[in-house]
Amino acid sequence: MEPTRLDKRLSALLGIPRGEARRYIEGGWVSVDGEVVEQPQRPVDESASIVVAEQASDSKAERASMLLHKPAGVPADALCALIRTETRSELDASDIRPLQRHFHGLQLASSLPADDNGLVVVSQDPAVLAHLQRNLGRTEQEYLVEVAEGGPERGPWLMARLQHEAGGPKVSWQSEQRLRFAGKGLTAKGLRTAVTAAGLQVVAVRRLRIGRVALGPLAVGQWRYLGSDERF
Questions:
Q1: 27, 98, 113, 173: most buried by Cβ count inside 10 Å?
Q2: Which residues form the RNA-binding S4 domain (predicted)?
């Protein structure tokens, strides 16, 4: 016999509508001869062993959003390609099951200049993309700016100058060479300009947080899913 589409075969096996069978498959709940298959149109032979996981749900698979620790030196148009199965962080505590469909149709929601590193958001979800594109400038962000040794004396006047040049965010020293900035309307490029104008030499800029979502201990080049309970 000619091979049959997997969704059609599953529909017949379980006695369910094709749409329901398709949702099981797209949700990553169906295996063929021991291999998880997420494509409803996959042709299968009559002899193929088709198994549906016990915990299977026919709920429509959600569009995924990921938090990536962008490495310095990587341009914006190369960031989505860093989202791969092997670069997912072991620290990902979300209850999201990785699916192959999560790696398709990704778009960058919050970029950084190529020279800078830190938190960026990559997503398939139009709502997440639209929210960040519209509201990023009005959302509090946190950055760490590393500066070279030397420069002007580091007293209260320097902090006032930094705050003025950066447009009024909270500014504090985290260490001898690291400045923390937190506030709305911040950009990596703007902070480089502000810190340089205050007489300090910028070594690196890292974004630590967007709204209530933080980079945390995510390693450079790795990503995790945006949890269902996390909001920017």
A1: 27
A2: 4-69
